[in-house]
Amino acid sequence: MNRRMGLRLTWAVLAGAGADLAGLGLIAAAAWLITRAAEQPPLAALSVAIVATRAFATGKGVLRYAERLTGHDVALRAQAATREELYEALIPPRPPRHGGADLLSRMVDDTEAVQDLLVRALIPAAAAALTGLAAVVVGLFVLPVTALVLVAGLAVAGVLLPALTAAAARRWSARIAPARAALAGSVADLVHGSADLAAYGAEDRALTAALAADDDLAALERRQARVQALALAGGTLVQGLTVAAIVLLAQGAEAGPVATAVLALTALVSFEPVLPLAAAGERMAGITAALRRLKEVRTAPAAVAEPRDPAPVPAPPYTVEVEDLVVRHADAARPALDGMSLTLTPGRRVALVGPSGAGKSSLLSALMRLVEPEAGRVLVNGADLRAFASDDARTLMTGLTQDPYVFQTTLRDNLRLAGPEAGEEELARAVREARLEQWVERTGWDAQLGEDGRTVSGGQLQRLALARALLHDPPVLLLDEPAEALDEETADRLMADLLDATRGRTTLLVTHRLRGLEDVDEIVVLEEGRVIQRGTHAELVAAPGYYRDLWESEVLTRSR
Amino acid sequence: MRAERSVRRHLAVTLAAAVVAGLLVLVQAELLAGVLSGRFAATALTGLVAVVALRALLAWTQGAFAGRTATGVKSALRRRLLERLQELGPARLSDHRSGELVTLAGRGLDRLDAYLTGYLPAVAVAGVVPVAVLVRLFAADLASAVIVLVTLPLIPVFGALVGMTTKAVTERQFHALSRLGGHFLDVVRGLPTLRAFGRARYQATVIRQVADAHRAATMRTLRVAFLSSLVLELCASLSLALVAVPIGLRLLGGTLDLTTALLVLLLAPEAYLPLRAMGTRFHASMEGVAAADAAFAVLDGAADPEPATPAKAAASAGPGRGAPRIELENVTVRYPGRDDPALFGVSLTIEPGERVALVGESGGGKSTLLHLLLRFVEPAEGRVLVDGADLRELDPRAWRDRLAFVPQRPHLFATSVAGNIRLGAPEATPDEVRRAAAAARADEFVERLPGGYDTPVGERGANLSAGQRQRVALARAFCRPHAPVLLLDEPTARLDGRSEAAVVAATAELSEGRTAVIVAHRPAMIELADRVVRLHEGRVVSDTAAHRRVPSPAPPPPDNPSSEPPSSGTPVATSSSGASSAGVSFSDARPSHSPSSGTPSSGARSPDGPPPEPGAPGDRTADDEQARSGREETVRAGRQDLGGDR
C-alpha cells in the first residue's frame, strides 16, 4: 500500500472517528446542557453547549457520509490494487492445480475480502477505538476511576467479544462449509441429473438425500445462530453493566449530577460504535481465510524458471529439436512424458497420436514453457529453450491450446486478441480457413460473446480458437486437438482444411483422429509418455501395433 | 404443515423478543434518568442492572429463534422447491437455466437470512417502539413530544425519496457495473489463452483501466445511495438537538424538572433509532425478497398441463411386459415459448424388437422424440401408443420401469461407481453390478480404479473421463436386464475411436432382443440399426429400412457452403466399399462429394453412405472384406480403455 493510499485510509478513519465522536459530543453536550441548566446558571454559560449540540448534530451526519464515501473509495482502490497484484502473479504459468474455473472464481471473490477488510473491519474498528479513547479521556478528566471501568468494558465489548466471534466463526465455517457443499451437490444431482433420475425411477431417493443434507445444514446453522446470539447478548450486558458501575462510582464519589450524567451518557454512547465489532469479528474469519488464500496464490512458485539474462530470439527459420524430454506433473508417480525426442525442421509437419493421458499435451506445454521438464531439453536452432524468456518462447511456438476461452466481448475482439495488428482482410481469411465464416455472418462481427452474450457451442469455440491460431501465425504452429468437440462431418472438413492451410508451415498437431494423416511428414505415437511408434501413415498402417489398431477401429466406426 | 406451524411460532417468539427488548429500553431510560437526576436512590441501579440483564436475555432469545425461523423457512421453501423441480420433470427443467436453479435452491435461499433475522424484527420494533416512546414523551413533556412527532415521519419520507433516486441511479449504472465487475474474472479465466498469444501482460493495463472505470461508476452510485443515510442521520441528530436545546432553556427558566429533561434526552433518540435500523436493513433484505420471489416463481410458475393423470386409478405399465410395439400417431410436440414445434405431425411405428436409428442434425427433434417416449414431454397433438394403449393412460413410473435410457450427457451422481450403475436397480447385487459393467465394457477401467466399484466418482463424475462416464451410463442400462425398451441419445458422442468401438459393441449386445431407439450421428452406431429414421426440423424426412438401401431423396443441405471433398486427396476412395448412398445420413453435412455413386454393394448392411476413406485407397478389394471381419474381432478384443488414465 503506497503513501497516497495510506493517506486516504487515514482520512476515512478520521471521518469515521469524527462521526462517532460527534455522536459522543452531541450526547455529552446535551447532557451537560441539561444538567447544567437545571442548576440555573446565566444563559451565557449555556451558549457554548447549545452551539456545540447543534454543531455535533450536523457534523455527525456529514462526517458519517464522508466516512462512507472515502471508505468505499479507498476500499475499491485497495481491491483494484489487489487484483492487479494477483493478475501479475498469475501471468507466469502455474502448475495446473491453480487452474480450475471454480478455483479462479473463488480467487476473484477473495479479492473482495480486501474491500470488506477495510469497510467492515479496519475503518470501523479504528474509528471505534478513537471514540472509546475520547470517552476514556473524558472520564479521566472528570473522575479517573470511571475511566478504568470504561476501559474494561470497552475492551470486553470491542476486543474480547470480536475475538470470540472470530474464533467461533472459524470453527463453524469449518463445519458448515462441507455441509453446504453436500447440500449443493445433492441439489445439483437433482437438477442436472433429473433425466437420469426420472428415467430410472430414482427421484424419491435423490430427494430424500437432498432433504437429509438440508437437515444437517439447518441443524448446524441453528447452533451457529445461538452462538452469535450469545455474543449479541454479551455486548448488551457489558454496556449496561459498565454504565451502571460508572453511575455507582460517580455517585459514591459524589461527583455531582452534571458530572454523573456526562460520564454515564458518554459511556453509554461510546459503546455504540464498539458493539458492531462483534459482527465484524465474525466476518474477519472469512476475510483472513481469503487473504491467506490470496497470499498462497501469490507466493506459489511459477511453473518454469525464467533465465536471468534471457537470450535474444534467434532469426528464422527455426528448427526445433526435442531431446529425451521428461515431464512430470506435480508429484505424479509416473512422468507424463518419459524420454521423448522429436525434430521439427522448417516446414515439417508432425502429428502426435495416442490415447488421452499419453503425454501429447504435456509435450506442447513443455514447448510453450508452461511446465519445466524434469530431464532432457528442447533446442531452438541449437539454443536451449530455457535460455529464452518464456514469453519469447511462446512467440516462437504457440497456437491452439487446450480449453480455449471466449471472452465477454465482441466476436471481433475475441479473434483480434491473437492478432492486434490484423486488418479486416486477415481476420476474414482466418475465419474462412477455420470454417467459421458462416457463423460470423449470422452472428455479426460486433456480437457480444461470452457469459452475458451469445452462447458459443463447443464446435464454434474450437473453430474460433483455430481462427485465432491461424491469425496469430506463429513460426511453429501447435495445434492441440483442433477437431475436438466437433461433429464428425465438420471435424473431417476442418481437418482437411487444416492440413491444407498448414502445408509448408512448421506444425505440431495433436490429434486422436487419424483421417488425413497420410499427408503429414511424420506421425509419432505416444503411450504412457513413451514413443511406441513413429513413421509415416503408410509405414505405420503396414506394421502391426497401436496405430494400425486405432486406424482399423476408426475405419470400422466410419464405414464398412 | 407441522413444520410451517413451528416456523410461525419461532417467528412470533423472535418478533416478541425484539419488541419487548425495544420497550425495555424505555424502562432503562426511565431508571437512568431517575438515578442521574437523583430522584431515585442508588438502589434503583439494581433495577437498571436487572433490566439490562433481561435485555441481554431477550437479545439471545431473539437471535436464537431468528436462527430457527430462518432455517425453518429455508428448509420448507427448499423442500417445496425441490419437489416442484421433480414435478417439472427433465424436459421443462432444461427450459430454466439449470445452474440458476441449483444456486437458487442452495445459496440463493440463504439470502433470506437477512430478511428473516434482520429486517422482520426491525419492522416489528419500528412498528411498536416509536409509538411507545411518543406516548411516554407526551406524558412527560408535550413540547418535546410534538417536536419528535413532527420530525419522526421525515425519516421514512426522506428514506423513501432517496431510496427511489438511488434505485434509478443504480439501475442506470447496473449494466455497466456488472460488466466492469465481471471483467476481471473473465480475464483471469482466459489467461491461458491470453498467454498463448502473448497478450497477458498487455491485459494488466486494461485491468487497471477497467478497475478505474468500475470504481468511478460505483462511487457515482454510492454518492447518491449514501445520501439516504446522511439524511436519516441528520434527521435523527438534528431532532435530538432540536429537543435538547429548548429543554435546556426551559430548565433554565425553571419550567421543567431535571428528571423529565433527562428522560426526554434519553428517550428521544430511541424514537428514531428503530426506523433507521429498519432502513439500513432494508437493502440487504431485498436480496432475500428477490430470492423468495424467484423461488415462488418456480413454485407457482407453469401451472401447466400436468401430465394428464391416468383415467383409470389402477394405471398400469401397459399391457404385456415384453418388447412392446410403439406407435406415434401424427404427434406434434411444442415447447413453451418457442414458435416452431419440436416435432410436427410425426407418425412412426416401431415394431417389437426393432432397432431404429434416429439421425439428422441437432435441433431436428431427435432428442425430443426420445423424451416423448420417456414421457418427459407430452404431445400437443396426436398420441403415442404402446401395444395399442395410449401412453398417457399409463402410469409414468411403471412405464419408465420398462425403459433403459442413456442420455446424451449422462449425469453421474456423487456416489460410488457401483451406486451409479445401480441407479435404476437399487436391489442389484454386487455381482449383477459387475456383470452390467462388464457388458458395458466398463469393468476393466473400474477395476483399475483405486477403490474399484466403491470408488467415488466425484461431483458430476469429475474423476472419470468422458468415455468412462459414458460406459458407466451404459452399465446403468445393462443393470436393468428386464427393461425391454432401450433409448439411447448419442451414446458415442465425444468418444475417441477405441472407446467408441467398445461402446458400439456393448450397445449391439444391449439392444439384442429389445426395442431400441438410438439417436446416432456416427456411422458405426447407425449401422447397428434395422432402420434409419431421419428427422429434419421436427419432421420425418426419410425412413429407410437398413437392408433395403433404397436411396431416398435427401433434404436440401440446410447450411452448407462448402462443396469440397472432405479429405485431402484420395478421390478414388469414393468408388469403393459401399459408397455413399444418398439415402440416409450425412448428405447435408457432407455434400456432393460423390453424388453419382449409390451403386449399392451387395450384402452390406450399412444404410449409411460411408465417407471416403482417406487412407483406404480405392484398390481395396475383396480381401478387405475379409480383413474387415477380422478387424471387428480386433476391435472387440481391444476393449481396453483409452480415456482411462488421464
UniProtKB/TrEMBL annotation, chain A:
Ranges of residues in domain ABC transporter: 320-553
MF annotations from Gene Ontology: ATP binding
Membrane keyword on record: yes
Subcellular locations according to the entry: Cell membrane
Keyword terms, alphabetized: ATP-binding, Membrane, Nucleotide-binding, Transmembrane, Transmembrane helix
Every ABC transmembrane type-1 domain range: 11-250
SMART domains linked: AAA (SM00382)
Domain of life: Bacteria
InterPro entries recorded: AAA+_ATPase, ABC1_TM_dom, ABC1_TM_sf, ABC_CydC/D, ABC_transporter-like_ATP-bd, ABC_transporter-like_CS, P-loop_NTPase, Type_1_exporter
Membrane topology summary: Multi-pass membrane protein
Record-annotated membrane-spanning stretches: 12-34, 40-57, 117-141, 147-169, 229-250
Protein name per Swiss-Prot or TrEMBL: ATP-binding cassette subfamily C protein/ATP-binding cassette subfamily C protein CydC
